[in-house]
Amino acid sequence: MIVALLHRLKKLPRAVHGWSVMMKPQVVFVLGGPGAGKGTQCARIVANYSYTHLSAGDLLRAERSRSGSEFGQLIDSYIKEGKIVPVEITINLLKKAMEETMKADEKKFRFLIDGFPRNQDNLQGWNTVMDGKADVKFVLFFDCGNEVCIDRCLERGKSSGRTDDNRESLEKRIQTYLQSTRPIIVQYEKQGKVCTIDASRSVDEVFADVKNILDKES
Ligand code: UDP
Ligand code: MG
């Protein structure tokens, strides 16, 4: 009897553990201008917390170079022009990446979604496809002046190989950011969901603030 009971108790953590199969993805949107440091800070977060980093831009670039992709050309021209790719494409890539992550490891249900949602179309697409399927916990907003953003991207452009880290594309990206992405951040601010960080400082200084926020929020 006791042995059977112990056996069942031993099994319990596994059953509880098994619950996470049904865990809803917990999402933090990471927003900020081009070069604000979203990718850099996300890498730091991943090294210190149990989050999976999904960069919408990286997913689009991977899709652009996937042989057989029907969207390669379209993505390429949107990225160079600093325009926002139609959400049908981006949301499918994000959803697939989330599903694959959770399928491979049921404990990986916390996501940093970097560089999305960037405009109203993105937000609508997210709400349509993901409503009820994922919880948006809050938005990490890396706030940084345009000049600093441009300088950082030009510096990155020396080695990044990115087709949009040049002055011409950058000016368009900044315009897109100000016209389309800032209003999304404002909308989330009104819901009290935005944690703003002064991203013009050093990586270490910014990350110290990030840590404070994650320790409080997570
Ligand atoms: N992009 C998009 N939708 C997204 C994310 C990115 O259309 O949800 C495109 C857009 O053209 C953007 C480019 O990909 O200018 C680069 O995005 P990324 O997030 O990599 O740039 P970052 O802001 O990190 O410098
Ligand atoms: Mg990035």
TrEMBL record:
Q: Which InterPro entries match?
A: Adenylat/UMP-CMP_kin (IPR000850), Adenylat_kinase_CS (IPR033690), P-loop_NTPase (IPR027417), UMP_CMP_kinase (IPR006266)
Organism domain of life: Eukaryota
Identify the residues that bind a ribonucleoside 5'-phosphate. R61, K83, I84, V85, G115, F116, P117, R118, R162, R173
Q: Name one GO biological process term.
A: 'de novo' pyrimidine nucleobase biosynthetic process
Report keywords, A-Z: ATP-binding, Cytoplasm, Kinase, Nucleotide-binding, Nucleus, Pyrimidine biosynthesis, Transferase
Q: Which reaction does it catalyse?
A: dAMP + dATP = 2 dADP; dCDP + GTP = dCTP + GDP; a ribonucleoside 5'-phosphate + ATP = a ribonucleoside 5'-diphosphate + ADP; dCMP + ATP = dCDP + ADP
Q: What is this protein called?
A: UMP-CMP kinase
What is the E.C. number?
2.7.4.14, 2.7.4.6
Cofactor: how and how many bound? Binds 1 Mg(2+) ion per monomer.
The question of whether Transferase is a record keyword is answered with yes
Location comes to: Cytoplasm; Nucleus
According to the record's subunit comment, the protein's assembly and interactions are: Monomer.
Q: What is known of its domains?
A: Consists of three domains, a large central CORE domain and two small peripheral domains, NMPbind and LID, which undergo movements during catalysis. The LID domain closes over the site of phosphoryl transfer upon ATP binding. Assembling and dissambling the active center during each catalytic cycle provides an effective means to prevent ATP hydrolysis.
Cofactor(s) for this UniProt protein: Mg(2+)
